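As a warm-up, study this chain.
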Amino acid sequence: MSDVFRAACVQLRSSDDVSENIAETVRLVRDAAAQGATFIATPENTTLMAPDAGAKLASSYDEAHDPALPVFTALAKELNVWLLVGSLAIKVSDTKTANRSFLISPDGQVTARYSKIHLFDVELAGGEAYRESNTVAGGNEAVLADTPWGRIGLTICYDMRFPQLYRKLAKAGAFLITVPSAFTVPTGQAHWHVLLRARAIENGCFIIAPAQGGAHANGRKTFGHSLIVAPWGEILAEAGTDPGVIIADIDPELSRAARAKVPNLQHDRDFTGP
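Now compare it with the structure written out below.
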């Protein structure tokens, strides 16, 4: 791990217009870079919040033909930043996409890809229902990436409810874990802050969680409140519900210090039962 760096979350309110979403993301990434950020993260579903599953498939591409990736790789190179594209819908079959994060280095190369493992299939109080697995192929591999500041782990949204994934990433050396999201309003109000702070505290790591916020083309409302959380649980930066940028300075040494104070990563034990 090396020196302090500036990180940014780009908060979006993506629509069903891919070109419009790319342009808005580029604008806000430039804003973040102008504020000195050298690690910039965008939310889940960065370039597409479609009104229904059919529309999502119709507006999705395989990785080789996705229109956003060349734009974002060129942008990272131009701005000399690390860019975490929170997720794109990458077509993997005639009926399904992968919900995939891309980490792009300052030389414009994709250095890591992560496909969301845990898919959001749930019925909420009030009649909201989501069946992500109907149109998304779940991933099956946890992903780490090396950066100049240390090793980071990649996750997406609903993954945050599965602490075993974060523990494995932390024990494999991640001092920072990204959680790009498009959280629902009811679950966000109840759980967003406490879950992200818990993942930071129990693993002694930074959490960078860029989010979607507001009302989208399909009528869905997302919670917003992008967060950057320190390893001791402090919220370093928080957005509201509108699109924009939040910034925080990240000192990787704070992860080491938190793990020294509470060395629970060393104290996991195998056990039998129940």
